[in-house]
Amino acid sequence: MTAASDSTLFPQLSTATQFPATPEGADAVLDGLDPEQREVATALRGPVCVLAGAGTGKTRAITHRIAYGVRAGILQPSSVLAVTFTARAAGEMRGRLRLLGAGGVQARTFHSAALRQLQFFWPKAVGGDVPRLLERKIQLVAEAAARCRIRLDRNELRDVTGEIEWSKVTQTVPADYPAAIVKAGREAPRDPAEIGQIYSTYEQLKRDRGAIDFEDVLLLTVGVLQDRHDIAEQVRAQYQHFVVDEYQDVSPLQQRLLELWLGDRDSLCVVGDASQTIYSFTGATPDHLLNFRTRHPNATVVKLVRDYRSTPQVVHLANGLLAQARGRAAEHRLELISQREAGAEPAYVEYADEPAEAEGTARRIRDLIASGVPASEIAVLFRINAQSEVYEQALADVGVPYQLRGAERFFERPEVREAGIKLRGAARFGANDALLDDAVDLPSEVRAVLSDMGWTGEPPAGSGSVRDRWESLAALVRLAEDFAKARPEATLADLVAELDERANAQHAPTVDGVTLASLHAAKGLEWDAVFLVGLTEGMMPITYAKTDEQIEEERRLLYVGVTRARLHLGLSWSLARSPGGRASRRASRFLSGLRPGSGVSAARRLPGAAAGGVERGGEAVGAGRRKRRGPARCRVCGKTLTDAGEMKLMRCEDCPSDLDEGLYERLRDWRAEQAGRLSQPAFCVFTDKTLMAIAETVPTTASELAGISGVGRRKLDRYGTDVLALCAGEEPAGARQDGSEDAAENSSEK
Q1: What is the pTM of this model?
Q2: How far apart (Å, rounded) are the C-alpha atoms in residues 361 and 82?
Q3: CB 640 within 8 A of CB 632
């Protein structure tokens, strides 16, 4: 398949200009959408839930939905509020809407939308000016800790600040914090009672100084809308239609705000994927997404599973990862179907040690660049930021530029800078330093110096900045050990000089370089080539993931990493930490059954996985009776079908037809008789395309008939016996006469 045919068949793959022509009318907005995306775009009434797998064009679907509604005159631009989770995503959405001819629609983050409302209504609701907004709360948290006579180092301060933020988005007050973390299975970075005390003092300091933080923006907006019904009604009069992206990541507080915006209305479209829930540590939960159908029984649910991003080989691996998942999110997983032509198989590589893994990855990246892949289209993704240093060095050694995303450069991290200062001081004045009295070699000298900074032989429990700090110091210890092996006579001064040289070598321009990022920081991004590194037990899943829920979130994190790749995917791990070390590591359990030689391969079809398609409110709510419609393929040539008529026939219009013309005419005569009885147009019984599909497949059982597009459960119950009799060459017994209640359903199948 040529590149031209790719973009013709699958418009999402087209490399369009940054300034495409604005569609001439509402119908033109729908051009290029696949059937499921078109369902999203045209479902403008009532609650809509879009379950969108990775790479399936969710942003395209929801922006075209808003634009179609505006261009068709169904939605007023000023009445729509689209909510995203980052300012970057909000800006991108506004840009897309403007190009589609739907300027004037508000696209904001939750915090931005709430702050705007708070600033407008504060004089009316409270009086006076809005309290000063704290841009950074960490200084005030430090003061609160000092007033409580609790000493926090820089890393503990960051962790306690994170706990306060989690408490506020989960609507946990200071007195309830200790009990809340137990219930949530959350591990506190220090004594929960102390954190609760600091949290309480922090809140009092804010009140005393007339200041609020970002979480207060949401809390206060919720309070105003709850207490002042007149203001709530004014907001609801302004915004009547809501779209929420990344709905699996909403916190309880954000959900409460959304409910207040909505009131008793249901004009809400949410978009998400439970399999990409990776921020539960911040208070995000997929429960609101998974419970959407329960809260809104009449919702239209559209599943997007056509993956326009990744090759079939990458998609097969992603599906295989989810096939092994457990828990509630796994029960709602989506089975992706790649729309790209075949590519290379994912490469699984086992290395002897970490430096060898980094060097091997760097060489493979160098070869990809030499073959024409731009450096900016390549990424190395790891579990924690402390893993970056060895890859920074390996890429520098082979002359490949890189850029760090979501993390400071290794040698610019505060703890690494502090360690450098201490090591330099020890190198100069070590003879008078009691810390070094028992040190017998270079590595032990480094361990002694860094132990004064909190480094220990075993990693700390839990996650967060304390763990990141330890990983950075541990990387320096490993570097010292490797340096000593390579140069047995090296001194502490030699190591400091080596560190300086490494730091200086990594300040080269990196604008167009390979991206180095943590898996969390990679969410929402994509590259032609992705290398997932360090995939060992203890790192993926991470050591402190203990519960089943935590393990499953680690699996989802790896799934996010896999689905970042378009064409090339590498997965690697090392058996030992350093050269010559004991080969005690093993590959991540998540790769079992997927990588060659690790057991039975994952099934091509995932048991229990949701296919693509549409479920309309009130239809087939029982799991055993639900009809799932996936992306259809031609039963003659196998091509993915995108035209609604072709999907009913289950073949391309120009593919050979084996129509039984006699049966088709008998079906038409029978349909005319039934339509006369119902006083309905003929298409309300079955459309021409559905009759053609029946005459081509000639079903012999009810299940075969039900598999034909256009034959819903009610139509099967009402007409199935007659149709099967006609297919068998027999006279129909006569359809039931009680069909008037199905007019709306039948009309929708036209």
Answers
A1: 0.69
A2: 41
A3: yes
